[in-house]
Amino acid sequence: MYLYHKNESRPEDFVLEFLERELGGDLQCRKTVGDLLTTLREENRVLEEQVMTVSSAVPPKRLVALVYRNLTATTKCCPLSLVLILGGLTTVLVNAPFLQHLQGAQPWMDNLGQILNQVDTIERHMKYLRCLQHIEELSAAVQQCLMTSSVWEAIRAVDSMAVLDAGLNQSGCSHLQDFLRETLHFWHKIIKDRLASDFEKVLTQLHWPIISPPTQSLTPTANCQEIGSQLELLVTQLLALQTSYPSPPPLCLPIQIMLLPLSRRFRYHFYGNRQTNSPGKPEWYLTQVLMWMGNSSTFMEEKIQPILDRAGAAISARVELCRGLLSLVQEKVASDASRLLYDDVLLSHLVEEVLQFEKELRSNQSYPAVLPGLLHLLLEDAVLQKWLTVERKMAVEKMDAMLSAEGAWSSQYKDISDMDELKAPDCAETFMTLLQVITERYRALPCPAAQLKFLGLQRELADDFRIRLTQVMKEESRCPLGARYCAILNAVNYISTILGDWGDNVFFLQLQQAAVSLGDEAFLGDLGVMEVGRLASLEGSLFEGLLALLDRLKGDMMGRMLEWTMREITEKAKPYCQDRWLSLPSQHDQSTMSLSSSACPMMLCVRDRLLHLHQVLSLSLFQLAWQGLADRLDNLLYQDVILSNHFSEGGAAQLQFDMTRNLFPLFGHYCKRPENFFKHVKEACIILCLNVGSAILLRNLLKESEEETRHWASAEDPPPESALNELGVYCLAPCDVLILLNLRASWPGQ
């Protein structure tokens, strides 16, 4: 089969172009076509004679070249193009002689194709043999260089082998390439072993390996400069040899050799039946490796790093040694972790030590964050699932212990007022510390998906703790003002506050984004599109559902506490509600007035409950408590005292005195304007204490306004609210003010 040049036109195009050029537009002229056919036949006869003449004397390869050259010179095309031309002419003329000619030439074309295939095969064999010869020559050159201690020449010969190996990658000669690579590995090992032997001798003179912390440098020896030169030569040669490896080694060759004595020590002490190989003491080998890293850093930076820099190697000697030592630790940790999967205590201890090792590696040894340490070993499915199981199990055990402890519901800072603002009981603080410790353990994991699993565990534990608090609260609900009930409320508030802060923490915001991008079902499964959108825009929080449950529990507990308190205050307020407000005489001098005797039990109760709540509740909860108490007390006094009685001028004055001089100041300890939290009582006192003339005018105004409201009101008339606002009444509606005015007994003519 003939091959065409990549830029050669298709045969059909060539035929059309040829006919157009030779015949022009006169395709119907048989004479012109006949002349062209005669010319082509003559050329074909000449070519056949040339082939027959030289076929017996010329070798096959020269014969092919000669035929092709004559074909090209005569027809300006390859033999197949000539055949296609003849075929095209035969098609045009539909002439039988042309068909016979083509059939007669076909065997010749087949023979020529076979000859070309044979030539190609022989040529490939020749190249194959030349390549083998070249490999043998390079191998002999390496051997000769090593016999004469010409290491650099040997390395260059090995480099040539590596170049040849790269060139054979696409050849398909797998056996030849295997042979070359075996030869390459053979000489690599020979040269490396020779250099390694010399390198180890030099390192020994430099007191490597450095097992203990280096002391002050000794006086330089006489051959210090010579040792330094040998060190540089050997490191440079090892680096040059490394470049000819078919695949890059895991560590640069000089560091590999420097690592050998440390590797032997590590395997001697921490494998086999040695006492130092204890499953319960992973800190022994982890600490040992950290010490080796620290002790060797000065040597690597002062002795090896300058040589690497001068050789143009973009390698940190200290980091490279750490990588080598880490490979030893990684193998050991992976082996230990798989053996400890069924021992919760030992596995938990291993995880703790690995996390501590990773922390010191990144901080004290400045190991680059882009390089893997040990944490990825903890992300293996079996290890990670077991770690999560152990975390859950131990957390539940600790929750049981902390809730049953003797001082579970007392604050450890109760005697330090400045530090006891949240008044969190010890069990709540211990629980949140537990969650924080879990966070610190998984914070450094390099996989957001794994981090989200631990966050899910934290949410489960927090909800479990909430349920436990609810159960204890129900047992204490018969005494909502008791110390334990208030401690539970403080615990709920404390946990809610901390989780709210976590929702704004950068680390948890990053996890929130990861949950959205990964589509984590554990966090997004029950959420709608809007909720997921809020999470994606950082408007929401991964703790929102849990915070809602905690806020509901806090609201229920606070409501129960205030209802209990108001029940007691209401009982104490009954005499005050039934006081004879209508018959109290008028007192023009308020300096002689005193608190109503019937109000004393109520006032004492309010004072005592405020003091108690202030002592047992956190600051934020107490703010909610006294404001909620003020709102309920305002409603009680307005409904049961004011709207349920009629007031003489003296009764109204006494009510105002009791409220402004006694009740409001009780809340004045906790805010600047307590009367603003008793709007109904305050404004009712204003209305009840108006002088007669102002009261009459106001009543008339309100009645007129009420009449106009029933019909068409004039747009020019000012609304009655403006008159009330001038008196300081903003909360009460005009209809409520009319009711209050009707409760006054001091009207003219009455």
Q: What can you tell me about this protein's structure?
A:
This protein is mainly alpha-helical. The chain is 71% helix and 0% strand. The chain has 27 helices and no strands. The protein has helices spanning 11-23, 30-54, 60-75, 79-93, 96-147, 151-167, 174-205, 224-242, 253-270, 282-310, 317-339, 344-363, 381-404, 426-442, 448-476, 483-503, 506-518, 521-524, 529-536, 544-577, 600-616, 619-642, 649-667, 679-688, 692-710, 720-727, 734-742. The chain is elongated. The N and C termini lie far apart (134 Å).
Question: Which properties best describe this structure?
Answer:
mainly alpha, single chain, 750 residues, 71% helix
Strand content: under 5%
N-C termini distance: 134 Å
The chain-level mean pLDDT equals 85
Q: Gyration radius, to the nearest Å?
A: 50 Å
Outline the biggest β-sheet.
Answer: none
Low confidence ranges = 1-9, 54-86
- Which descriptor suits the 3D outline? elongated
Structural class: mainly alpha
Q: How many distinct helices?
A: 27
Q: Give the % helix.
A: over 70%
Element-level helix/strand string: HHHHHHHHHHHHHHHHHHHHHHHHHHH
E-strand count: 0
Family: Belongs to the RINT1 family.
Organism: Scophthalmus maximus
Protein name: RAD50-interacting protein 1
InterPro entries: EXOC6PINT-1/Sec15/Tip20_C_dom2, RINT1_Tip20
